[in-house]
Design a protein that fits this description.
single chain, OB fold (Dihydrolipoamide Acetyltransferase, E2P), 4 domains, 26 strands, globular
Length: about 290
């Protein structure tokens, strides 16, 4: 994503989740509203379709890119490019040994290596990183790595919803799944099962969570219980979802800037935030954001 002055944005990527009635789609995880947009050159917006590569010019309104102009583009990559992409698998075909990530068709073959995931674990919705060569519109996978997260959180459990396997950790909703790895450093019993581990969580526990940043929650890949912190500060490494006049938001967690500056911070930036909970129940930065 490229930024110009006054929050102007240029973004290139693959159209997903197209809603022609609402005139919205997503691109690289960003919501795009094209109700007021025009097509560049001879491009007709009625020809928009999922999987199409486009360039969008517009401005940010909250966490939404308001498109002014959209142009269709050639493939994201050139032939014989070495490519590394991450995302959720969709359109998985076990017979053809193909799937898509962010609109890119990925081909598996006998030479594909697997790291922290097996070929049998591939399915729609699984988050992976793929490295390989791009040829004739297809990414030939040299290596597929599983469960690499894009967000980390060190904080304290504030709420527990066992029935939905949901935690609130320092203001962030953390969703556990059947694939979440739970590590309890305080327990030496290797015979504990996953249900025991989930039931062992208590409000007030300090945990470290690594996972995938979603629109309004953190999908936990790993969660590890830790010793309590002396300073009561929390740490979050994540992508900025929205900026207010005096706050920054990640996954619906609003953190007040307090005495610190948000100058130069943009929506979409990956930053590290150290923050605390005030006596009034709000969250505020304890130092400037670190990118």
């Amino acid at each position: 994503m490229d930024f110009d002055d006054d929050n102007e944005v240029e973004l290139e990527g693959v159209v997903q989740n197209l809603d022609a009635m609402a005139q919205t789609f997503t691109i690289n995880g960003f919501n795009v509203d094209y109700q007021l947009a025009t097509g560049d050159d001879d491009f007709d917006l009625d020809d928009l379709s999922n999987g199409m590569t486009v360039e969008v010019e517009g401005y940010l309104q909250g966490a939404t890119l308001m498109a002014r102009e959209i142009d269709d583009e050639d493939d994201l990559f050139d032939d014989n490019d070495d490519v590394e992409i991450s995302g959720d698998i969709y359109d998985y075909d076990s017979t053809a040994r193909t799937f898509r990530i962010n609109g890119v068709l990925v081909q598996i073959d006998g030479d594909t290596d697997f790291d922290d995931i097996s070929a049998g674990s591939l399915q729609d919705g699984v988050f992976v990183k793929v490295e390989g060569d791009y040829r004739n519109g297809v990414l030939l996978a040299d290596e597929i790595e599983g469960r690499e997260g894009d967000a980390e959180l060190d904080g304290q459990i504030e709420q527990i919803d066992l029935s939905n396997e949901l935690l609130v950790v320092s203001g962030v909703r953390v969703q556990l799944t059947a694939n979440t790895l739970i590590d309890d450093d305080d327990d030496d019993d290797d015979r504990r099962n996953r249900v025991d581990d989930i039931n062992a969580f208590n409000v007030g526990d300090y945990v470290e969570v690594e996972g995938r940043q979603r629109a309004d929650y953190l999908e936990a890949f790993t969660i590890e219980r830790e010793d309590g912190d002396d300073d009561d500060d929390f740490e979050l490494e994540a992508r900025v979802d929205a900026l207010g006049s005096n706050s920054v938001t990640f996954m619906n967690l609003e953190i007040l800037q307090g005495n610190f500056s948000l100058s130069g911070v943009r929506v979409g930036d990956e930053v590290e935030a150290e923050y605390r909970k005030t006596t009034g129940g709000q969250y505020e930065l304890v130092e400037n954001l670190d990118d």
